[in-house]
């Protein structure tokens, strides 16, 4: 991430949360429909309550694009989400991130230079026109553009299997960025065998594989991961089953394959929310995803027992940089005509990234 977060004055950092929220609401009234605050499911509650729209990253970006009267779109999420919103919105809409250090560590594990280098190395051992690149939406705009310009697609955690199936019809191999685990879980769900899936370890020649291993493989997985979802394990699930025999376990597919295989269900944030909402009163759940979403589910469904899957809360530390203080600081600046923390994707990158996003929507 190139932009540096300007210091947030101490008067914001020391203010009471309820005062900050009241001042945010006053700004929202003042801006009216010109301002749209988007809140990702993993945001802390005080920020989430201020959002005009809530959801997962792509849903929010698409909703922002549809809200044409909104001139200022404030994405309470992480950097790649704000980039996706900027790509999909039009020139009259500007997108802002309340804290510039709110990046996604997993997205940052695949830089476009690393990916371009890997792509070139792979071309030395496999016919390039037979490799279809696919990137998880949790990736930089530059990676999306790289993929889009090479005939590939974006995927989300809810459509990854469908996109992988599409890619395998178009070519011999998939190069999947940046999340090893979503890629592996989706490939396994499509029936691919372990020996058809190889890990590309960034920084190692040929990703640490022999030319023969790469030639044999159907799916190459970049070795990125989400620190939050890596906290969940099959052992935790076994422990819950011993403690609560009636428990149902649902987990996000960024978790490792052993944990996903041991769970009753796996799915995106929206799928997790729907599964709990549609379950019968009195049901007991262990949920493997970010703590703010699980706590919200506990509050929204007092008729169900909902446990955190891991013994300690798993929190996205960069998402947590977006606070009522940073949100208010941003809105105060906008009110004074200072467009701080704007996320702008260069037009040539946005064009390539759109190709990859549009391809996903067609699939
Ligand atoms: S929860 Fe994981 S994937 Fe999501 S923003 Fe945080 S680090 Fe990235």
Q: How would you describe the overall organization of this protein?
A:
With 363 residues, this protein is of the alpha/beta class. It has three domains: 122 residues, 3-Layer(aba) Sandwich (Rossmann fold); 120 residues, Rossmann fold, CATH 3.40.50; 80 residues, NadA-like (Rossmann fold, 3-Layer(aba) Sandwich). 43% of the residues lie in helices and 15% in strands. The mean pLDDT is 97.
Task: Please describe the topology of this protein.
Blueprint: H1 10-13, H2 17-31, E1 35-40, H3 45-50, E2 53-55, H4 57-66, E3 72-76, H5 79-88, E4 94-96, H6 112-123, E5 131-136, H7 141-149, E6 153-155, H8 160-170, E7 173-177, H9 180-189, E8 197-200, H10 211-216, E9 219-222, H11 234-243, E10 248-251, H12 257-262, E11 265-266, H13 269-277, E12 284-288, H14 291-300, E13 305-308, H15 324-335, H16 347-362
Parallel strand pairs: 1-2, 1-3, 3-4, 5-6, 5-7, 7-9, 8-9, 10-11, 10-12, 12-13
The chain binds iron/sulfur cluster (SF4).
Residues 42, 78, 104-106, 138, 226-228, 290, 316, 318-319 line the site of iron/sulfur cluster.
Specify the CATH class of the largest domain: Alpha Beta
End-to-end C-alpha gap? 31 Å
Note the main sheet: 5 strands, parallel
Name the hetero compounds present: iron/sulfur cluster
SS content category:
alpha/beta
Domains (count): 3
Beta content comes to 5-15%
- Strand element count: 13
Predict the CATH topology of the largest domain.
Answer: Rossmann fold
Shape, principal axes of CA atoms: globular
Summed over residues and divided by their number, the pLDDT gives a mean of 97
The helix fraction, in percent, is: 40-55%
> Low-confidence parts, pLDDT < 50 over ≥5 residues?
none
- Rg estimate, integer Å: 21 Å
**Physical arrangement of strands within the biggest beta sheet:** 6-5-7-9-8
Order of helices and strands: HHEHEHEHEHEHEHEHEHEHEHEHEHEHH
CATH superfamily of the largest domain: NadA-like
CATH architecture grouping of the largest domain = 3-Layer(aba) Sandwich
């Amino acid at each position: 991430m190139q932009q540096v977060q300007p210091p947030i004055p101490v008067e914001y950092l020391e203010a009471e949360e309820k005062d900050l929220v009241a001042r945010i609401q006053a700004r929202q009234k003042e801006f009216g429909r010109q301002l749209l605050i988007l809140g990702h499911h993993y945001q802390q509650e005080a920020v989430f309550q201020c959002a005009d729209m809530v959801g997962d990253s792509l849903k929010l970006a698409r909703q922002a694009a549809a809200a044409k009267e909104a001139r200022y779109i404030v994405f309470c999420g992480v950097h790649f989400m704000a980039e996706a919103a900027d790509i999909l919105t039009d020139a009259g809409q500007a997108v802002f991130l309340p804290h510039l250090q709110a990046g996604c560590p997993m997205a940052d594990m695949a830089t476009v230079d690393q990916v371009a280098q890997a792509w070139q190395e792979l071309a030395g051992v496999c016919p390039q026109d037979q490799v279809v690149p696919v990137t998880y939406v949790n990736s930089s705009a530059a990676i999306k553009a790289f993929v889009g310009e090479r005939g590939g697609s974006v995927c989300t955690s809810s459509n990854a299997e469908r996109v992988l199936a599409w890619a395998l019809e178009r070519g011999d191999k998939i190069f999947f960025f940046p999340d090893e685990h979503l890629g592996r879980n989706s490939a396994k769900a499509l029936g691919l065998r372990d020996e058809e899936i190889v890990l590309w370890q960034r920084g190692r020649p040929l990703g640490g594989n022999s030319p023969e291993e790469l030639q044999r493989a159907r799916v190459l997985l970049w070795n990125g991961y989400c620190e939050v979802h890596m906290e969940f394990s099959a052992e935790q699930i076994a422990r819950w089953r011993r403690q609560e025999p009636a428990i149902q376990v649902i987990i996000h597919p960024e978790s490792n394959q052993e944990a996903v295989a041991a769970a009753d269900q796996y799915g995106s944030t929206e799928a997790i929310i729907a599964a709990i909402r549609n379950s019968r009163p009195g049901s007991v759940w262990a949920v493997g995803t970010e703590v703010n979403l699980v706590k919200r589910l506990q509050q929204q469904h007092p008729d169900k027992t909902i446990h955190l899957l891991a013994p300690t809360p798993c929190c996205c530390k960069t998402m947590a940089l977006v606070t009522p203080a940073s949100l208010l600081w941003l809105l105060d600046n906008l009110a004074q005509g200072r467009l701080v923390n704007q996320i702008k994707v260069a037009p040539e990158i946005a064009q390539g990234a759109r190709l990859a996003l549009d391809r996903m929507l067609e699939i």
